[in-house]
Amino acid sequence: MALTTEYSPNRLRATFVLAIYCGFSLGFVAAGGLAAWIIPLHGWRSLLWIGAIAPLTLAVFVFIFLPESLDFLVRTKAKPEIIWRVVRSVDRALPNQGPREFTTEVEQKRSAVGSLFQSDRTLGTLVLWLVFGLNLAEFYALQSWLPTILTNLGDPLNTIALATSLTTIGGIVAALVIGPAMDRLGPYRSLATVYFAGVVFVALLGLAVSAPSWVLLIAAFCAGFCTSGGQKSVIALAAIFYPAPIRSTGVGWALGIGRLGGIGGPLLIGVLLAYQLSAASLFYAAAVPMLLAGILVMLLGVKYKTP
Description:
Blueprint: H1 13-42, H2 45-65, H3 70-75, H4 80-90, H5 122-152, H6 157-185, H7 187-208, H8 213-241, H9 247-274, H10 279-303
Helix pairs in contact: 1-6, 1-8, 5-6, 5-8, 5-9, 5-10, 6-7, 6-8, 7-8, 7-10, 8-9
């Protein structure tokens, strides 16, 4: 029995990746609520204790209940009954007795970074790294500086808190929409559309800062839908782009390189603020990375002849 993990329109890989990665955004929201409740009662050090205990506790449950991937089990020649048990956990309609042999795709150096640049993947890998950097620069710039900018403009505290939260909530909602779109309409086309929409909505934040609060909140939600949702989606795109033996390496390196953008984006906004740039001009400038990311993803789809 062959177990292959290449992308096909019938699979739901992007949907699953986006749904799982919603935990990242939910963590943002939960951490804020937890901090507001815990710090007044037990001080700021209590958050560090929670931050240490929670992942250790989670690691125990993951170790016990989370099975290895099918591809890993096949490549490491696990017992057929173990592999079939994992398969049946996905589809209970399958018979109790499964095949005695499984095969999967093989990569020459499945864990080596050099594999990311083999089999005509060099350009795709470099472009993905750049897109990750642009998107993370955008995401962290908005998360870091939106509250400060709105505070300087004299917005009430509840509006600032809600606008900042809505950028994260927008990313959670995006996962419910973009994932199925990537699986059904094609990953490159769908993600490029999200980025191009992000150009519009991030720029609209520049107009919304001087508009009524409800306009600002809608703009913040839509901008978060595209920036936070785009970040989740480009992770799904990387998972689709790389074959299973090097998928974790590809996604991990893209996230790692992309963090350089996550550092540089907020720093750049800080420099622009030091030059007394207006809030509207800041958001207009912040729309540029989304435009570049959209163009790169679109060209990547053309290069690899994928919808």
